[in-house]
Write a structure and sequence with these properties.
mainly beta, Porin, about 60% strand, two-stranded antiparallel ribbon
Length: about 180
């Protein structure tokens, strides 16, 4: 019952954030992500808001950035270290992301971000444990933006609580992301 109540709260929080009255230009793109790591699969949907800033402009490149708000489902296949036993949890997160890119915002790029995440329950899968539901998620990614604005990237993401409480073995994912622009 407690798990269902928490799930409803997370869904309600997502609906609340999604229904905030924002100008149509606020959401620049939507993305879908699929990841895997350490006997855990992840699927995630996200919305992005670009910053109206460019740093270190040089030779046709700059560092820009955006906010990433996402909602994910994780499915562990070795819950409490028992093969075949599943753990399903949800994560909601907000991440500021810095991107090194061409001035025209097309072609290859590299990015990094670190943000905050809230998990619906404590992660305990394949001998990896997270002792808090509040986690940091940091990522490194490389990708390509096509002429039509579609963005494909490969991302490495690590989740941990930053050592605030033990155990904190961390969880790593390799993620494929497809992003579609709304402008």
């Amino acid at each position: 019952m407690k798990k269902n109540l928490l799930l409803y709260k997370l869904i309600g929080l997502g609906v609340l954030f999604g229904s905030l009255h924002l100008p149509a230009q606020a959401i620049d793109s939507l993305s879908a992500e699929f990841g895997s790591g350490d006997k855990t699969k992840m699927v995630r949907a996200a919305a992005q808001w670009k910053w109206d800033r460019e740093w270190w402009k040089s030779n046709g490149t700059h560092i820009g950035g955006y906010w990433n708000f996402d909602f994910a489902h994780w499915r562990g296949n070795k819950y409490q270290n028992i093969e075949g036993r599943r753990q399903n949890l949800f994560a909601i997160g907000l991440t500021p992301v810095f991107r090194f890119q061409r001035d025209g915002q097309r072609g290859p790029y590299a990015e990094l971000g670190i943000g905050g995440y809230f998990l619906s329950e404590l992660y305990d899968n394949n001998d990896q444990k997270l002792s808090t539901r509040l986690q940091f998620g940091d990522h490194l990614a490389a990708g390509y933006v096509f002429q039509n604005g579609v963005d494909i990237s490969l991302k490495f993401q690590h989740f941990s609580n930053g050592g605030f409480k033990k155990p904190n073995s961390g969880v790593d994912f390799l993620i494929l992301q497809a992003r579609y622009p709304l402008d």
